[in-house]
């Protein structure tokens, strides 16, 4: 199985586990680092703020879960970590959780001639996020977002 398909399968398998454990799966990263396969999982609480002890517990429990499911056939290193204060926003749910927070957007295609915007998330809809930029609400379609992250 290719790494992209394996990452997708891991992501799907772990989402329900995280939800039932009261956490959010922010991102699943599977890649080789120095010839070693590393599975890096970024986790958070729905209200934000996961601590090191919780990451350690998740690491142990996810390791057992993955061993039982036997999804990864090769040897790997598992790391569970916080996404950090300036975490990336990827999904509609991410943007909804951070209403009224400042965000920096990097776009695939310009809006009003710019590909980088800073603003306050004011509304989230099915296909777009609305951001207040200098007093004006600008619609940013999710499909145009290359990267978005909280501004600390």
Structure commentary:
There is one protein chain. A hairpin with a 2-residue loop joins strand 1 and strand 2 (36-44). The protein has 152 residues and is an alpha+beta fold. The chain has helices spanning 3-21, 52-69, 92-97; strands spanning 24-33, 36-44, 77-81, 102-111, 114-124, 128-133, 136-141, 145-150. It is built from three helices and eight strands; from the N terminus they run αββαβαβββββ. It is elongated. The model has no long low-confidence stretch (mean pLDDT 90). The protein folds into two domains: 3-81, GMP Synthetase, Chain A, domain 3, CATH 3.30.300; 92-150, SH3 type barrels (Roll), CATH 2.30.30.100. The strands form two sheets. Strands 7-6-5-4-8 form a five-stranded antiparallel beta sheet. The protein has a three-stranded mixed beta sheet with strand order 1-2-3.
């Amino acid at each position: 199985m290719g790494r992209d398909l394996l990452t997708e399968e891991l992501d799907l398998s772990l989402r329900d586990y995280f939800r039932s454990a009261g956490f959010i799966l922010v991102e699943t990263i599977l890649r080789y680092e120095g010839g070693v396969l590393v599975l890096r999982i970024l986790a958070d609480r729905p209200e934000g703020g996961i601590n090191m002890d919780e990451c350690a517990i998740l690491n142990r429990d996810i390791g057992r879960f993955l061993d039982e499911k036997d999804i990864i056939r090769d040897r790997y290193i598992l790391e569970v970590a916080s996404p950090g204060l300036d975490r990336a926003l990827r999904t509609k749910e991410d943007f909804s959780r951070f209403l009224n927070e400042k965000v920096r957007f990097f776009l695939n295609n310009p809006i009003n001639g710019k590909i980088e915007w800073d603003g306050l998330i004011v509304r989230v809809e099915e296909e777009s996020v609305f951001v207040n930029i200098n007093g004006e609400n600008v619609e940013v379609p999710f499909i145009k977002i290359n990267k978005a992250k909280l501004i600390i």
